[in-house]
Amino acid sequence: MSNRRKRLLPYASPFVMLIRKAISLGASEALLISTDILSIQDEIIEMCRAPKCEGFGQCANCPPHVMGPAEARKWIKNFSEALLVKQDLPPSDLFGPNEMERFQRMFTLVTSLEKIARNRGFEQATGLGAGSCKPVFCPEDVCSVLQGKACRLPHLARPSLEALGINVFELAKSVGWPMNKILRETDPRTVSSAALIGMVLLC
After folding, report:
1. pLDDT tens, 75-108?
2. 3-state class of 63 per DSSP?
3. CB 126, CB 79: distance < 8 Å
4. Which of 58, 83, 125, 180 has its CA at a distance of 20 to 30 angstroms from the CA of residue 197?
């Protein structure tokens, strides 16, 4: 398989429909990629450890409770393609009171596309969001799954790409989507653009 073939797959139906749906539901861009290009890296999980990420250990969809890199590498082989989606946003939106709303939009987008894909024959379609679902949906509550109960929002809560060890910045670069790295200490006025990236795995 050529590098080009590995990176972007042909826009044949029903993939065209999924890409168009992604845009109509709020994605700034959407691409179909081969899962061959997904690199799961142990060091990405290490970057999640507190205090770098407040979600670490706080919910079932975040490390160390979600599957580890070794298991994720095996699991990802069950999928041949993935619908990669991006939502562009002003850097200032990642700071302040509306921050979680932006992440919620991504979770809503990927889970909506997951449902659409399953209804179109991709029975194992699985969405991956951006960031931790804990502060987005259950900021004041302990994760119910970690208490041995059912998830409060099973139709929305998903792991993120980073939680499984996927380097989002490398992935974005490989498909021609430049991304600025934005940290808690970043001054949003110094960054020209921001984006969140999600994915729906397909087989």
Report:
1. 999 999 999 999 999 998 988 888 999 999 999 9
2. coil
3. yes
4. 58
